[in-house]
Amino acid sequence: MSKVPGYRKMLGMTQDDMAKEFGISKQAYWKKEKGQTQFSDKEKVMFKEMLKPLFPNITIDSIFF
Question: Which GO terms describe its molecular function (predicted)?
């Protein structure tokens, strides 16, 4: 089970908000969150940076794997 939705909710963001952040459609973001397509390395780094204020020591592995 992906931890991404939980982290997204901790940020107070919707799937639509995240799609806008990443410059993709809501449908494309939904597919990534459901595991149908992979997050790009750039998107993984962006997500990690968004979480850093809440979790200063968070790693990409702890978010996505």
Answer: DNA binding
